């Protein structure tokens, strides 16, 4: 089975998708993992990859062995245990309650063999929240955002340091309040408490 081309452009395209199937949600309640997976099978995140997924074998009743290789979607997390504590009694309220408040994290993993060992690699995560299915940010996008934040913080640091320093051709950079350079050399009689009298033009920053 060939690798799926998980380029960042494709993942960014996935991140723009917000999928919801109101017909499915009107018929079924998202109060168990089975219904959540059946709902996920209807979304484009799955249908565009279904031919390459082991889930198709599961849907036909076949058992997936540890040695089977391919891509597989699984529920990695759900909040059903928490929701059951405040579950409504009547069926209509219960239906709305679960379809509105249930949360499922769906992982896409690749099963493969390497050096006679069974390996599993998580490729991407999806989530079902408030009856809608989203694609989460890829690792590459998270890393890019983190790098951008670091670079932005470094730029802000340099800007702050630059405002605190002056440059002299003989001593290079030295830390000194820029406002001090306009008061150096003034006679004490020219200083009036918090006000300084000078005829020198202030340098542009």
From TrEMBL:
Pfam families according to UniProt: Med6 (PF04934)
Keyword presence, Transcription: yes
Keyword Transcription: yes
Top-rank taxon, per record: Eukaryota
Gene Ontology molecular function: transcription coregulator activity
The entry's keywords: Activator, Nucleus, Transcription, Transcription regulation
A GO cellular-component term linked to this record: mediator complex
UniProt-listed InterPro entries: Mediator_Med6 (IPR007018), Mediator_Med6_sf (IPR038566)
Cellular location(s): Nucleus
Any one biological process term the GO annotation gives: regulation of transcription by RNA polymerase II
Coiled-coil zones: none
Purpose of the protein: Component of the Mediator complex, a coactivator involved in the regulated transcription of nearly all RNA polymerase II-dependent genes. Mediator functions as a bridge to convey information from gene-specific regulatory proteins to the basal RNA polymerase II transcription machinery. Mediator is recruited to promoters by direct interactions with regulatory proteins and serves as a scaffold for the assembly of a functional preinitiation complex with RNA polymerase II and the general transcription factors.
Family under the similarity heading: Belongs to the Mediator complex subunit 6 family.
Oligomeric and partner information: Component of the Mediator complex.
Protein name: Mediator of RNA polymerase II transcription subunit 6
Chain's gene name: MED6
């Amino acid at each position: 089975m060939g690798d799926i081309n998980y380029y960042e452009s494709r993942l960014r395209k996935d991140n723009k998708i917000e999928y919801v199937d109101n017909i499915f949600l009107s018929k079924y309640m998202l109060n168990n993992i089975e219904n959540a997976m059946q709902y996920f099978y209807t979304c484009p995140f799955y249908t565009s990859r279904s031919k390459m997924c082991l889930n198709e074998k599961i849907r036909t009743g076949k058992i997936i062995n540890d040695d089977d290789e391919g891509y597989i979607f699984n529920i990695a997390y759900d909040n059903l245990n928490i929701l059951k504590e405040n579950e409504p009694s009547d069926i209509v309220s219960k239906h709305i309650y679960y379809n509105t408040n249930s949360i499922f994290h769906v992982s896409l993993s690749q099963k493969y063999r390497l050096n006679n060992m069974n390996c599993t690699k998580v490729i991407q995560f999806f989530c079902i929240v408030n009856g809608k299915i989203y694609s989460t940010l890829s690792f590459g996008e998270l890393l890019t955002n983190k790098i951008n934040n670091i670079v932005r913080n470094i730029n802000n640091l340099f800007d702050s340091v630059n405002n605190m320093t002056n440059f002299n051709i003989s001593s290079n950079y030295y830390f000194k309040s820029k406002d001090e350079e306009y008061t150096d050399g003034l006679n004490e009689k020219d200083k009036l408490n918090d006000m300084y009298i000078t005829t020198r033009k202030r340098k542009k920053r």
